[in-house]
Amino acid sequence: MGSPWTNWARTASANPHRVEHPASVDELVAAVVGASAVRPRGSGHSFTPIAVAPGVAIDLDAWTGVVDVDGPLVTVRSGTTLRQLNALLDVLGLAMANLGDIDAQTVAGAISTGTHGTGAALGGLATQVEALELVLADGSVARCSATERPDLFQAARVGLGALGVISTVTLRCVPAFVLHAREAPGRLDAVLAEFDHLTATEDHVEFHWFPHSDRVILKRNNRVDEPAAPLSALRRFYEYEVMENGAFGLVCRLARAVPPTTRALNRVCGALIAERVYRDVSHRVFTTPRRVRFVETEYAVPRAALHDVLRELRTAVDRLDHGVIVPVEVRVARGDDVWLSTAHGRDTAYVAVHQYLGMPHKRYFDAFERIAGAVGGRPHWGKMHSLAAADLRDRYPRFDDFLRVRAEVDPEGKFANDHLDRVLGEVTRRGPGQNASSTGVSPETTS
Known about the structure:
The protein has helices at residues 25-33, 82-92, 107-112, 150-156, 188-193, 195-201, 233-257, 262-271, 282-286, 306-319, 362-373, 389-393, 399-409, 418-424, 443-446; strands at residues 5-6, 13-14, 18-20, 38-41, 56-59, 66-70, 73-77, 94-95, 129-135, 141-145, 165-172, 174-175, 178-187, 204-209, 215-224, 276-281, 294-302, 328-333, 348-356, 378-379, 427-428, 437-438. Strands 16-13-15-14-18-19-17-20 form an 8-stranded antiparallel β-sheet. It has a 5-stranded antiparallel β-sheet with strand order 6-7-11-9-10. By secondary structure, it is an alpha+beta fold.
C-alpha cells in the first residue's frame, strides 16, 4: 500500500495505491508495466498537482548517481537531486552552465517542468540536455536525442512526466568555474532603467523587489578566472540560516498572525538589505537554502514587455485588500527551441510572485496572471496558475506537436492525472485498431 504524500508547499497531496522505489531499469520497467495508472514523482518542489499519482507512484530515490562521463557529457540517473549532481560534478571538475536557486529537485523533475536560472545568453536546464532515456507506457526503453527520435527528444526535454518515466539524462556540462557574486540594495526604477545594459554585460542578473516599496536586492554573478573566496562558515550561517530563513520566517509568521502589519514589515525588510560580495564555486552561488515555505506563480513574458508588466503589477499590488510579505523575483533567459519551454522562440523575462504559506494569495495571483496573460505570458509548468489546454495551445506554437508525440507513446493515458488533463487535455481512448489522441480541451471547458 502507498502512504500519504504532500508536496513541499503543501498545495498538493496524494494517497496512491502503492509506491514503487525502483533501483534498476528492469525494476522501473516492471513498475510501469504493472500499473494501469502511474506517475513519477520527484522531490515535491512543484507547486501544482503535477506529481499526484492516481494509482501507482514511482519514487526514484533509489535510482541515483552518475552512469557515464564522456568529456563534458555526463549521464546521470533521473532520481539524482541537483544537490547530489553538483557534488558529483565537483569531483569531476565539471559544473552545470546555469542553475536555479533551489537544488532539492531531482534532475528529471527539474527538466520536466522547465526549471531555469538567469542569464540573457543562457537557456533553462532543458537546453543543457543532450540525450534522454525513457521507459514508455508499453515498457519499452527509448533513447532520444537531437538525432535519434528527435521529436520525442524535443517533447521530452520539458515533458511534464506525460510521455514516460525518464531513466537517465545526458547533460552537456562545462568546466567547473567560480562566480564573483555581488548582492546589493537598489531602487526599482533605477534597476529597470539599466536592466537591459546589466543583462547584456553581466553573466547572471536577477533582482528581488519588495512590493510595498521601491526597494530591491540586485544580484549580479559573473564568471571569473580567480580562486574562490567564499563567505566564512560563520557568516554564511548568519546570512542564510539566521537572517534569510530564521529571521525572515519569523517576520512572515508575524505578518500571517497580524495581517495589518504586512505592508510595513515588507518595507522594513527591504530597508534592511546589506551588501554581500564574495567568490565561490558556481553551484554554491546559484543555489541557496529555502526553509521558509511559500506559494508561488511565475510567468515567462517577452523581454520587451517586462517594464509594462512590472508597472501594472505595482498598481495591482497597491489595490490589494491584503499585504504581500515575500519579494517578487525577476530573471531572464535566452530563447530556445524546446517545444514546451516557457522561453520557446523568444528571449524571456521571468516574473515570479509569492506569498507566505497560509496568507491570502488568490487575488494577488489572479491579478498578476491577467497582467502576464495580456502580453502572451506562459506560466511555469511547476508553479500555480489557472490556465487550461485551450489557453496554452495559443501560447505554444508546437503544442499540437507535443500532443501528437504523447498520443504515440502513451495512447491510453497511463501517465495522466487530473492536472495533466487540465493543462494538456484528456487522452481520448479509442477502440481496437484506432489511434488515441489528446483532445487539448480540459474537463472544465467541456462541463
